[in-house]
């Protein structure tokens, strides 16, 4: 999916795709990847969520899963180095999920809250070159809970 469309044709933009950990199934935590395109396509605007004004103006994320239009509200935006960390999406207990959500909140560059009842999360991942624009192996991670 990095350089092909879903019909397996070459595309510089690739495709937006669900993480392979999910096995194509929507779960409690859903990790979606996409390229950060300079022209704003794909996940080209996601890195802007690292900045509070943009984040606050664009918190609502809509996802169509093939059956339902789901609405999520972003509550965390942080970066990670892909040489040192990955994003697991499966945990043994709901307490472990909640602990991971608290971890994401504590790492966030912007303030966001999550209802205690939240149990469906969306994580968006794209490459990001940091505030300097020159960092390598950095990713912008946006985390949201399902609000509708």
Features:
about 150 residues; alpha+beta; six-stranded mixed sheet; about 15% helix
Explain what you see.
- By secondary structure, the chain is of the alpha+beta class.
- It is built from two helices and six strands; from the N terminus they run E-E-H-E-E-H-E-E.
- It is globular and about 40 Å long.
- The chain starts with 16 loop residues before the first strand and ends with a strand.
- The relative contact order is 0.21.
- The model has no long low-confidence stretch (mean pLDDT 90).
Topology readout:
Elements: E1 17-18, E2 29-33, H1 52-57, E3 60-64, E4 69-81, H2 94-107, E5 121-127, E6 138-146
Parallel strand pairs: 2-5
Antiparallel strand pairs: 1-2, 3-4, 4-6, 5-6
């Amino acid at each position: 999916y990095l350089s092909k469309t879903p019909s397996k044709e070459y595309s510089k933009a690739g495709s937006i795709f669900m993480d392979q950990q999910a096995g194509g199934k929507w779960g409690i935590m859903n990790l979606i990847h996409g390229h950060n395109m300079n022209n704003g396509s794909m996940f080209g605007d996601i890195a802007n969520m690292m900045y509070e004004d943009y984040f606050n103006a664009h918190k609502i994320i809509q996802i169509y899963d093939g059956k339902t239009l789901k609405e999520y509200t972003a509550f965390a935006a942080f970066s990670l180095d892909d040489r040192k960390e990955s994003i697991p999406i499966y945990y043994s207990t709901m307490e472990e999920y909640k602990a991971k959500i608290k971890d994401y909140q504590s790492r966030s560059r912007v303030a966001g809250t999550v209802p205690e009842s939240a149990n469906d999360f969306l994580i968006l991942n794209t490459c990001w070159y940091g505030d300097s624009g020159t960092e390598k192996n950095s990713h912008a991670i946006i985390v949201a809970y399902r609000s509708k």
